[in-house]
Amino acid sequence: MTDASTLAPHPAHRWITILDGCRLQQIRRQHGLSQEKLADQAGISLTTIARLERQHRASCRGRTLARLAAALHAEPAALTPPPAGTARIL
C-alpha cells in the first residue's frame, strides 16, 4: 500500500497550455458561430470563451483546448500559437 504522503504532487502547469485567442476568434467566425454557440457546443462557459479571445496568448487547461478544437472540427494545434520564429500559414 502506498502512503499518500510519499507521492510526488503533480505540478498544476502540467495540464495548462497556451491558446492563440486571435486564432480562436478567427476560426469561430469562419464557422459562423457566436461566442455563446461555441461555448454551448464545447461545453464551456461563455465567460471562458470571451476571456480566451481577448488575450493573444491565453492560458487554458488542455481539456478546454481539446473541447474547443472538437467543437470547431479542428486539430488542437490550430488553436495554439506557432513556435517562436515561425509564421502560421492560413
Could you walk me through the main structural features you see in this protein, from its secondary elements to its overall organization?
- The radius of gyration is 16 Å and the shape is globular.
- It has helices at 21-30, 35-42, 46-54, 62-71; strands spanning 16-20, 57-61.
- A two-stranded antiparallel sheet has the order 1-2.
- Helix 1 crosses helix 3 (46-54), helix 2 packs across helix 3 (46-54) and helix 2 crosses helix 4 (62-71).
- Helices cover 41% and strands 11% of the residues.
- With 90 residues, the protein is an alpha+beta fold.
- The termini are far apart.
- The longest helix has 10 residues, at 21-30.
- It has a single domain, classed as Orthogonal Bundle (434 Repressor (Amino-terminal Domain)).
Number of strands: 2
Q: What letter string, H or E per element, gives the SSE order?
A: EHHHEH
Strand content: 5-15%
Structural class: alpha+beta
- Output the strand order for the largest sheet: 1-2
At the third CATH level, what is the topology name? 434 Repressor (Amino-terminal Domain)
Quaternary status: single chain
**Biggest sheet architecture:** 2 strands, antiparallel
* Overall CATH class: Mainly Alpha
Helix content: 40-55%
User: Stretches where pLDDT falls below 50 for ≥5 residues?
Assistant: 1-6
- Counted by DSSP, the helix tally is 4
CATH architecture: Orthogonal Bundle
Average of pLDDT: 86
Distance between the termini: 53 Å
Domain module count: 1
